[in-house]
Amino acid sequence: MTGTDESDPLVLQVKEAGPSCFERYTGSSRYIEHGRRIVEGQRAIQTAGDILTGWVRVPDAAGDIKDYYVRQLWDEKGSVDLDSISVSDLDGYAALCARTLAHAHAKTGNRHEIAGYVGKGDAFASAMTAFASSYADQNEEDYKVFLKQLGKSGETGRIE
Fold it and tell me: How far apart, in whole angstroms, are the C-alpha atoms of residue 110 and residue 119?
């Protein structure tokens, strides 16, 4: 298939979807089709997904049912040469990976995974408190500028 012209190919990738390696710990998926489990997982964690992603269940030559998922092939992924990366670049790369993974888990709303990222210490609570205080201070400053622009900054700080 092609997009706008012959130089714009559309390639669909079909990958076999077997049972999750976590099933022995977490039990079977609520989805019968393993391909659907993968697609639903991707949809849960991705900000913008591939509209061509789907799943299919078909028998193989022996008649055994096999699950697959389908997606558009994008072969323009970047990679990092871990053999020659500097220590500071590796730190940055690790932080980016952690942030991406945390964002994905936050989108799923799995409270146990989120709690794992937050941890047992007070670092998260301290960070949130500092952020909230700073955000409130900025709101107050923005409101003062807003009132000044209106020419209505009275002692009450309210628009009359």
Answer: 14
Whole-model pTM?
0.53
* Dihedral angle sign, alpha carbons of residues 26, 31, 37, 43: negative
What residues contact 69, with CB distance under 8 A and at least 6 apart?
Answer: 14, 15, 17, 35, 36, 38, 39, 53, 54, 55, 56
DSSP string, 42-78: HHHH-SS--TT-EEEEEE-TTS-EEEEEEEE------
Place of tokens 């888990």: 105
Contact assessment for residue 114 and residue 123, using Cβ atoms and an 8 Å cutoff: no
Taking the C-alpha atoms of residue 38 and residue 23, their distance in angstroms, rounded to an integer, is 13
Structure tokens at 153: 């900054």
The tens digit of pLDDT for each residue in 5-60 reads 888 888 888 999 999 998 888 889 999 999 999 999 888 888 777 888 999 999 99
DSSP state of 15: E
